[in-house]
Amino acid sequence: MPDEAYADPPEDGLPEPGAPLAGLVLVSTPIGNLGDISPRARQALADADLILCEDTRHSARLLSAIGVGVRTEPLHEYNEDARIAPVLGMLRAGRRIALISDAGTPLVSDPGYRLVRAAVAEGLKVTAVPGPNAAVMALTLSGLPPQPFLFLGFPPPRSAARRAAFGTLRAAERAGLSATLIWHEAPHRLAETLEDMAFSFGPRAAAVARELTKHFEEVRRGTLTDLAAFYASSQARGEITVLVGPPEEDDQEDLDGALTRALATHSVKDAAALVSAATGLPRKIVYARALAMGRPDDSA
Ligand code: SAM
After folding, report:
1. What is the CATH number of the domain that holds 95?
2. CB within 6 Å of ligand 1 — which residues?
3. CA distances (Å), 150 to each of 86, 153, 156, 239, in order?
4. 221-226, long-range: CB within 8 Å, 24+ apart, which pairs?
5. 226 and 260 together in one domain
6. Distance CA 70, CA 133 (A)
7. In testing the pocket of ligand 1, which one of 36, 109, 110, 183 has its CB within 8 Å of the most ligand atoms?
8. For residue 15, pLDDT beyond 50
9. Which atom of ligand 1 is found nearest the CA of 183?
10. CATH number assigned to the domain comprising residue 206
């Protein structure tokens, strides 16, 4: 059977790739390199009656660069709910509406999910023009197993919540989850996030992908411990995606490593609380192990 993408045009003679897309069209845009806008993405935007943008001023630069003068309106986190009814009304009336975000694939760590869910629930046509996505590009360059992968958006900004989130993932890994984990992160938080990751996940294989598709594109690969040490002394810049490989070590080594680090600077009780949150292991088990290990200076 021929691959559908290369099949002959239908008998009415209309070639599929050029047909204007109807309904709500999710259009992926570049994540840093204008050359990554596809001809089909440009066409979908030019054919639209209205383009919904996460930030109209930001997208004006892209639209002007590719010669698209279609009307734009904002659709962002704060007005998405209010915009759903009018947008569905336009779709019912047969309008073509494109949705773009500031960069990459809409909905992925970006607005649009609630609109898509509402349009799908009404049986309205929803389609997409695929394209750039930072998480998938980073995954393919990381050297880590490409599947299964788990994309987690941004980690919580505060350390306590972040360690608790990583602890939940460690608990899931102990229950059988084995996937490459992917997060976005802001440059000013990268060092502390890597430190928390090293604490929770131990010295496993990881990667930091920076400024993908741009002039200073870089993928730094190493253990979480090495990457945390590197970024502790070197301020990261630009847009960043962090990847952590699936678990390799057994839990006991993992627990002992985390406890050794925590006991160097905390009491047995505090170290047990910290490690329990970061690893997702029950506090009683961690406390018992911490007592057995003792603080480094206890034997002196
Ligand atoms: N929807 C976008 C996508 O499909 O890639 C992601 C939007 S999210 C709000 C933006 C975050 O994605 C950035 O803070 C950064 O963590 C990551 N990101 C975006 N562009 C990137 C790039 N060129 N290189 C590395 N990470 C990038």
Report:
1. 3.40.1010.10
2. 31-32, 101, 103-105, 108-110, 133-135, 184-185, 209-214, 239-241
3. 34, 10, 16, 19
4. 221/142, 221/143, 224/194, 224/197, 224/198, 225/198
5. no
6. 24
7. 109
8. no
9. 16
10. 3.30.950.10
Count of structural domains, the chain: 3
pLDDT of residue 1: 40
| Mean pLDDT along residues 155-168 | 96
Is residue 18 very low, low, confident or very high in pLDDT (cuts 50, 70, 90)?
Answer: low
Distance 25 CA to ligand 1 centre (A): 20
pLDDT on residue 262: 85
What's the pLDDT score for residue 14? 47
Three state DSSP letters for 70-92: CCEEECCCCCHHHHHHHHHHHHH
- Predicted pLDDT at 219: 98
Confidence of residue 250 (pLDDT cuts 50, 70, 90): low
Instruction: Give 184 Cα–ligand 1 centroid separation in angstroms.
Output: 6
Give pTM, 2 decimals. Answer: 0.87
Q: Does residue 110 lie within any of the structural domains?
A: yes
Shared domain for 163 and 110, answered yes or no, is no
For residues 245 and 21, which has the higher predicted lDDT (pLDDT)? 245
The residue to mutate among 31, 113, 213, 219, having the most atoms of ligand 1 within 8 angstroms of its beta carbon, is 31
The parent domain of residue 263 ranges over: 251-293
